[in-house]
Amino acid sequence: MAKKIIKVSEYYIKDNEEWFKMINFKDPIEVAHGFGVWLNLYFEVWAANRSTWIDGENHAYTTEELLAEFVNEYNVK
Known about the structure:
The protein is α+β, with helices and mostly antiparallel strands. The chain has helices spanning 10-22, 28-42, 63-74; strands at 44-47, 52-54, 60-62. The chain is built from three helices and three strands; from the N terminus they run H-H-E-E-E-H. The protein is globular.
């Protein structure tokens, strides 16, 4: 599992974490919006042209790998 980078206040994270848990995963627009916020909240772009992100331990992940983690973490309904 990717190690999230904490770049903002705990309050902001708590707010977003609650929202992520309420996302309707049957709505692709809502998932895309939530995933985009999650990516930018916890990861750094490494190579945008290759859709690669860096986590808190400097491991590289593709957007697809992180999408799978996002869905596994928050689609608990």
